[in-house]
TrEMBL record:
Residues 24-395 form the Luciferase-like domain. FMN binds at residues 97, 151, 222. CDD domains: Nitrilotriacetate_monoxgenase. It comes from Streptomyces sviceus (strain ATCC 29083 / DSM 924 / JCM 4929 / NBRC 13980 / NCIMB 11184 / NRRL 5439 / UC 5370). The keyword Isomerase does not apply. PANTHER family: ALKANESULFONATE MONOOXYGENASE-RELATED (PTHR30011), C2H2 FINGER DOMAIN TRANSCRIPTION FACTOR (EUROFUNG)-RELATED (PTHR30011:SF16). The keyword Flavoprotein applies. It holds the Pfam family Bac_luciferase. Signal peptide: none annotated. Belongs to the NtaA/SnaA/DszA monooxygenase family. GO terms for molecular function: monooxygenase activity; oxidoreductase activity, acting on paired donors, with incorporation or reduction of molecular oxygen. This is Alkanesulfonate monooxygenase, FMNH(2)-dependent. Keywords: Flavoprotein, FMN, Monooxygenase, Oxidoreductase.
């Protein structure tokens, strides 16, 4: 007996704060004007996507002491954007990345509860920690929080916000005009939390929101991150978007759920994925090649090589061979604010590997960066892309994908118009939204529902 088809979850990542975005393309628009965010969100909603996702950039990256302006520079405030988008959408989930290292539980809980009310129950929080003192200098003297404390703080941060959300039960507001009684319980919102990182008490001033709590996302891939997601998150973002890598990550994280008393369907796994779409597979392959060369200019290639070499390589020809000098292994790195630096824990070994690759394939510096960096995950005609996405989901490589187009704000349009209808015809993607809240779209029970009451209970 064959298992039933899984329904695919799709979301849209407004690009920026990375080198996926080709801001120099003539079709590219603003990353700060509201019209760009509104167009992107309306396209995602027209396609019946689950949610829109905003990443976060808390400090401008630097390279060699100068602002790194080869990527999109900066990011408007997340809550401001999502609150504005709540007014121009009706069903689309609104997911924001908010840092647990540099904020306080009360203010974040208040902001998300407010967004949930404004949107009618469509808010979601991507809980992240910050790893570098460089970013932290914007928030605290020294800017540093040791790694072992970051996840400890994040876990307590999330638990504390949930205590605040749950300090209202949802039935406290009477608002009886005749008697003049507004609250049934004058103690509504009362909380006391004493822990390692937070010692707070008072009354939370935002009543129970439509979802009870925002949907919680997590993006860490470390051992701590996977455990954090298995214990506390509703969904986890993944960088494992290949079939084999996705299946391994999917099995690993899903198998961690049981020890926390959770079922497999209580945590969704959603890798980020880029795409190149054209009328034919051959045309899509050519488009993907062009886009990769747009994303990795000569200047960008040299800057990316500096992530490993930790040296000024501006005198090298990006169309020439790799440097014959070795990386400078030092704690003082010339690239500030970039997570990629952590990927290369052994720069000398990486340099040897890259030299061997370049020699074997006759690659220049630019060729090497193009081939070793991020690539489009789904390349082909609409039929090919739709078939491949469905195959990945049915093979338990993911529960769906967060799509990252290379053009803002129109880069999602063709996918919405050409790929989504094919997924709908296959019966693996919705034709209408399931309900008013993001929990409905994601198939997640309301926090107030017991397993026996939950809409997903078997």
């Amino acid at each position: 007996m064959s298992k039933p088809l899984k329904q695919i979850h799709l979301a849209a990542h407004f690009p920026g704060v990375n080198n996926t975005t080709v801001w120099s393309d003539p079709e590219a628009g603003s990353h700060i004007e509201f019209s760009s965010f509104a167009h992107f969100a309306k396209t995602a909603e027209r396609a019946k996507f689950d949610f829109l996702f905003l990443a976060e950039g808390l400090r401008l990256r630097e390279q060699g002491g100068k602002i790194y302006d080869l990527d999109v520079v900066g990011r408007p405030d997340t809550f401001t954007i999502l609150a504005a988008l709540a007014a121009v959408t009706e069903h689309l989930g609104l997911t924001g990345t908010i840092n647990s290292t540099f904020n306080e539980p009360y203010e974040v809980a208040r902001q998300f509860a407010s967004l949930d009310h404004l949107s009618g129950g469509r808010s979601a929080w991507n809980v992240v920690t910050s790893w570098d003192a460089f970013t932290g200098e914007n928030f605290r003297r020294g800017g540093f929080l040791p790694q072992e404390e970051r996840y400890s703080r994040a876990k307590e941060f999330l638990a504390t916000t949930q205590e605040l959300f749950d300090s209202w039960h949802g039935d406290e507001i009477l608002a009886d005009q005749a008697s003049g009684v507004f609250l049934r319980d004058a103690k509504a919102g009362s909380f006391v939390h004493t822990g390692q990182h937070f010692d707070i008490q008072g009354q939370f001033n935002v009543p129970r929101s439509p979802q009870g709590r925002p949907v919680v996302f997590q993006a860490g891939d470390s051992e701590e991150g996977r455990e954090f997601a298995a214990s506390s998150a509703d969904a986890i973002f993944s960088r494992h978007a290949t079939l084999e890598g996705g299946q391994a990550f999917y099995a690993d994280v899903k198998n961690r759920l049981a020890k926390y008393g959770r079922r497999h369907d209580q945590l969704l796994i959603l890798p980020a994925a880029s795409f190149a779409l054209a009328d034919t597979d051959a045309e899509a392959e050519e488009l993907a090649r062009i886009v990769r060369r747009q994303q990795v200019s000569g200047a960008t290639a040299l800057k990316h090589l500096e992530f490993v070499w930790n040296r000024d390589l501006s005198s090298y020809d990006p169309e020439g061979p790799l440097p014959d000098i070795d990386p400078d292994v030092s704690e003082n790195h010339i690239s500030k604010g970039r997570a990629q630096v952590r990927m290369y824990r052994d720069p000398l070994a990486t340099a040897r590997e890259w030299r061997e690759l370049a020699a074997a394939n006759n690659w220049s510096i630019r060729d090497l960066v193009i081939h070793t960096g991020n690539r489009q995950n789904f390349i082909g005609s609409a039929e090919t892309v739709a078939r491949t996405i469905n195959e990945y989901v049915q093979a338990d490589a993911s529960d769906g994908f967060i799509l990252v187009p290379h053009i803002t704000p129109t880069g999602l349009d063709a996918f919405a118009d050409k790929v989504v209808p094919l997924l709908q015809e296959q019966g693996v993607f919705r034709t209408e939204y399931e309900g008013p809240t993001l929990r409905h779209q994601l198939g997640l029970a309301h926090p107030d529902e017991t397993p026996a009451e939950g809409r997903l209970a078997s």
